[in-house]
Design a protein that fits this description.
Blueprint (H helix, E strand, L loop, with lengths): L6 H9 L2 H12 L3 H8 L3 H8 L8 H11 L13 H23 L3 H20 L5 H21 L5 H18 L2 H17 L3 H14 L3 H18 L2 H16 L11 H14 L3 H8 L10 H17 L3 H17 L3 H11 L4 H17 L5
């Protein structure tokens, strides 16, 4: 899978020069011309002539044989196969598919995003498993795994969130190999956040600290700091939470500002509220909750998340009526946007305290379970 992922190998494939491709293949694998000839079933002299361009291969069968044996995408050698046209067209539009899927998820249509991503991921996975994975295809595979994992993490209930973390973890395997800090920072952040949601807090904090250190843009740093603050809060690590939330706020206050899902003061306040409540500072969170908040959420699901967090803070300071109203609003929104994890958060808070919330949440969660029931 990783054979053609290095810069050197990628340059050889881009050249479409069979001689250069053979030389690079030998160098990567530590093979002599004689050994490569044995692998391909040719004579050593024949390999030498190809590498020095004294012999050009035009026979389609021979080119297919070399491509399949060495794991070279056949189109690089000018050969087409029945599946190639479809695959190349898919790769050409893969970036657009990924962008549209992210937009769908951020606008509250995570199920639609998953439906868009499944065919792309399946084709890229199959291609990689067959050994035809150049650097471009691997980069797309990593991005697709991240997008799918995050979308799954939006719609899956608590007991299945490890599935989302596995997909983002598989994306991290790719990102670690491609030697691109921007891609690696983004993947670490997304994987860390899914690990947090799945309950693997120590691993989440570790990934998110790396993401903060590697992030190079205000948007990336804002996202990584916000996710680290949330993970730190859930571990009860007040000092780390305060450090991360301060860094997050500095990004938003900086001259460059920030954008994206986390470049938003509604999101900042939600992360602050939840972290303060989780680290034993509910009265401070309640005071923050009482401040005027003008900015709207960056995405519909953040309104739902905010309602649950509001309910958590109000319960912690003894305002049962306010907590009930917030959690009922959260359940209504989570039902609309198919967010079972948020209904489960609301139910955990209400259990044994707010009977009306439990009465509304349990059937809503059961209905979402029926709607989302398919093998993920």
């Amino acid at each position: 899978m990783w054979l053609w992922s290095s810069d050197q190998a990628s340059a050889a494939l881009r050249s479409r020069d069979l001689g250069q491709i053979l030389r690079v293949y030998r160098r990567i694998n530590g093979l002599s011309q004689e050994r490569l000839a044995a692998v391909l079933g040719y004579d050593k002299t024949y390999i030498s002539m190809i590498e020095t361009r004294r012999r050009a291969i035009t026979d389609v069968g021979a080119l297919r044989h070399i491509a399949h044996t060495l794991g070279v995408p056949v189109h690089v050698l000018g050969v087409t196969e029945p599946d190639d046209a479809t695959y190349l067209a898919m790769v050409q539009f893969a970036g657009s598919i990924l962008s549209l899927a992210d937009i769908a998820r951020q606008s509250g249509r995570a199920v639609d995003a998953i439906n868009e991503l499944w065919p792309l991921v399946a084709r890229l996975e199959a291609r990689a498993a067959d050994g035809f994975a150049d650097r471009e295809s691997l980069g797309l595979l990593g991005r697709a795994r991240v997008s799918l994992g995050v979308a799954l993490g939006t719609v899956l209930p608590d007991e299945k969130l490890s599935t989302a973390a596995r997909w983002t973890g598989q994306a991290l395997v790719v990102a670690e190999r491609l030697d691109n800090e921007t891609t690696l920072a983004h993947t670490l952040a997304m994987h860390g956040n899914e690990l947090r949601k799945a309950g693997h807090l120590a691993a989440a904090v570790s990934r998110l600290r790396r993401a903060v250190a590697l992030s190079q843009t205000p948007e990336a740093r804002s996202a990584a700091c916000a996710m680290l603050a949330r993970a730190a809060g859930e571990t009860g690590h007040a000092e780390l939470f305060d450090e991360a939330i301060d860094a997050y706020q500095r990004q938003l206050d900086g001259p460059a500002g920030s954008s994206g899902m986390f470049g938003n003061r509604f999101t900042l306040r939600e992360v602050q509220l939840r972290g303060l409540a989780a680290t034993g500072r509910a009265p401070l969170a309640a005071r923050l909750l009482g401040e005027v908040q003008d900015e709207l959420p960056a995405a519909p699901q953040w309104q739902v998340i905010g309602h649950v967090t509001t309910g958590e803070v109000l319960l912690a300071v003894g305002d049962r009526q306010g907590a009930e109203q917030a959690l009922l609003a959260a359940i209504a929104g989570a039902t609309t946007y198919r967010l079972p994890h948020q209904i489960q958060r609301a139910l955990r808070l209400a259990n044994g305290q707010l009977d009306e919330v439990v009465a509304a949440g349990r059937p809503a969660l059961d209905e979402l379970g029926r709607q989302l029931a398919h093998p993920l």
